[in-house]
């Protein structure tokens, strides 16, 4: 459907503010982002910014999404290493942990921050403006990315492991929820300096815990079929 002038203008203004937010994040870090700083950088007033973003958490969410490009670009190559659904899922986790622990503040805003609304709504809005971010990605991966709820995203993907006979249907939701909690727990521990792990060590430890969680749900006779090896 062809967009009207108002929609085009709104998308243009949206980009102005997100470009400004991106600059502020690169210079000062996402924790120092404020509506006023972004509005000043974009050349508008704070009240104008609030015409396009309900509150600061939404603007930070959208701006943080701009920093996930490297993750999205690498994800297909990581998943291509796997020969079955479980393998592909574990390699996807390895890619996600690599990038999320590289930029913990960014990924915590996207997946852990209080947004006040359903994140799927924000995600749909973001990719409506930044369609190019998904161009070139396989449809299966696009479907994963567009599902913001991490547990649902995992459950949606590893459903294939049930069909392949690796995992029982009744274990899908449990695995999806447990692995998400593993990542959140490790991310919180890392960001609050409760361990002395480097970002690489924290990422590797998280993937190891996820791997162990999954392996324990697989029939021992099928484990040798997995190629993933951290």
Automatic annotation (TrEMBL):
Q: Which UniProt keywords apply?
A: DNA-binding, Repressor
Answer whether the UniProt record assigns the keyword Repressor to this protein: yes
- Residues of the DNA-binding region: 34-53
The organism's place on the tree of life at top rank: Bacteria
Which parts form a coiled-coil structure per UniProt? none
What's a single GO MF annotation on this record? Answer: DNA binding
Q: Which residues form the HTH tetR-type domain?
A: 11-71
Specify whether Hydrolase is a keyword of the entry. Answer: no
Please state what the protein is called. TetR/AcrR family transcriptional regulator
Source taxonomy: Bacteria, Bacillati, Bacillota, Bacilli, Bacillales
